[in-house]
Amino acid sequence: MESTDLPQARALPLFATMAEASFGRLMRAARVEVLPAQTGLIREGEPADFLHVVVEGRVELYARWNGRETVLEMVRPRRAFILAAVLKDGVYLKSGRTSQRSRLLLIPAGDVREACSEDGAFARAVLDELAGCYRELVKQQKDLKLRTAVERLANSLLAFDGEQNGGGSIELPCDKRTLASLLGMTPENLSRAFATLKPYGVEVDGARIRLTDMAALERLAKPTPLIDDATL
User: Residue 158 burial (CB < 10 Å; 0-12/13-18/19+)?
Assistant: First the structure.
């Protein structure tokens, strides 16, 4: 790992509170990789050899079974994956690939477990990361089980708008097939959901979405912090 990469790694929430000596040992065999879109990273069923941290870009976590594939999660910058498998010295339950050009930090799994045993501040940061992942999973389950497909799409569009400065003009962060999978729909159901949202001011032009009646969309979506607030 290049010395120029160390300050950026040190600033990541997972490592920010570690003792300097512990951080130095953890980074001894770590490396940074810059990869193009659609690069395979991990495969479900294989041993968890490395902890991956997204520094820049985005990673798509997915699973396959019986000829079918579903996208489970999009990992954004400053988040680690798949931490639980690394800590349990288990196998990956998901596969992963870059969805855009990405910069990743890879740390040998054994070094992560050793650092957890030796550095209390790092262990607490790991617990915080795992707690955040669990709470995010609970919110995803509530979104899938308590909302209709149209409500899920409406809330996703509102979330995308908030992430993109709230101007009412959205660039979808992934292709529509991936978005459908994330929302628990088929591509055909996603198309029908977009059509249903047209009277609520949702205009679709490829990957560009315009929200022209935010109040109407919010009345339909009924966003709630207990599902939609990423900080809770």
Answer: buried
Beta bridge partners of 62: 71, 95
CB 76 within 8 A of CB 98: no
DSSP reduced 3-state for 64: strand
The DSSP output letter for 5 is G
Sheet containing strand 202-205, edge to edge, reads 169-171, 208-211, 202-205
Contact 36, 83 (CB under 8 A): no
* pLDDT tens sequence across 1-23: 677 788 889 999 999 999 999 99
* The pLDDT value given to residue 141: 95
User: What pLDDT digit, counting tens, does each position of 20-63 carry?
Assistant: 999 999 999 999 999 999 999 999 999 999 999 999 999 999 99
Tokens 């999009």 belong to 74
